[in-house]
Amino acid sequence: MILDQFILAKNKTKEPSYKEVKSSEKPIRSVVKALSWRLIGTLDTLLISYILTGEIGIATSIASIDFVTKMILYFFHERIWNLIKWGK
Description:
Elements: H1 2-13, H2 27-53, H3 56-83
Helix pairs in contact: 2-3
């Protein structure tokens, strides 16, 4: 009887995974969000870089590096915020 209560209490306090929580995002959703946001951001960076430099080659290089680095940072930023309970 006591063992049954202990097991039930332990199962109730178990932290659910993102698969069990409907308000949590799957990692693939974070990847797609990161890609779509980076496309918008990269076009912005490309335009600003072109306006500032007047050279499409330099602007493309800047935008390409910006795309990769910020997409990676955004993914990890989203995953970390998904772990934070504040505001949910």
